[in-house]
Amino acid sequence: MESEPYKPLLHIVLYQPEIPHNTGSVGRTCVAVGAKLWLVRPLGFQVDNYHLRRAGLDYWQHLNWQVVDDWQQLISHLPVERFWYFTKFAQHRLGTAEFEPGDVLVFGRESQGLPEDIRNLAPERGLRIGCRPEVRSLNLSNSVAVACYEALGQWRRAGGLGLELPE
């Protein structure tokens, strides 16, 4: 259930994801950018070969990923001070964040987003991705892709920071 095929540039956390196809798309993005995917239970699907194939994850063997049982187990593995919380309720726009290699980008459930108690852990590290008023929020997998490529773009503009960035 866990593998380490590469050292992650970022950590992507899906808190209690509900839709396997979204998780599949996020996994693809993680492989593309060199991020580790963390899934926090309960999940709205089973992580087994059938469900992975169904979600089209023929590249899953290339993904650095891990499933944890709950929020407490997640924070025992990762530096909380490096967490960025993505929510439509955040005061700060994505473009205002200054990402560092190893940062943790946390995303909530497709139907409800991040719970208020998690959003309130560090409101100054809450980020939102702007949308027109006709749209509540972007799809989860799109949000992850936008955030990951914003971080990579920052690092490229900073001269690459000595990182091996994907082309």
Question: Helical percent range?
Answer: 25-40%
Q: Which sheet architecture does the biggest sheet show?
A: 7 strands, parallel
Shape: globular
What sequence of helices (H) and strands (E) makes up the elements? EHEHEHEEEHEH
CATH class: Alpha Beta
CATH structural architecture:
3-Layer(aba) Sandwich
CATH topology grouping: Alpha/beta knot
**Tally of individual domains:** 1
Number of strands: 7
Number of helices: 5
Q: Structural class, judged by helices and strands?
A: alpha/beta
Report the C-alpha radius of gyration, rounded. Answer: 15 Å
Mean pLDDT: 91
Strands of the widest sheet, in order across it, are 3-2-1-6-4-7-5
Name the CATH homologous superfamily.
SPOUT methyltransferase, trefoil knot domain
What is the strand content? 15-25%
Ends apart, CA distance between termini: 28 Å
Q: Could you name the ranges where pLDDT drops below 50 across 5 or more consecutive residues? A: none
Task: Summarize the helices and strands and which ones pair or pack.
Blueprint: E1 10-15, H1 20-33, E2 35-40, H2 49-54, E3 64-68, H3 71-77, E4 83-86, E5 92-93, E6 104-107, H4 116-119, E7 126-128, H5 140-157
Helix pairs in contact: 1-5
Plain-language structure description:
This protein is of the alpha/beta class. It has a single domain (10-161), classed as Alpha/beta knot (3-Layer(aba) Sandwich), CATH 3.40.1280. The chain is 29% helix and 18% strand. The chain is built from five helices and seven strands; from the N terminus they run E-H-E-H-E-H-E-E-E-H-E-H. Strand 2, helix 2 and strand 3 form a beta-alpha-beta unit. Helix 1 (20-33) runs parallel beside helix 5. The radius of gyration is 15 Å and the shape is globular. The mean pLDDT is 91.
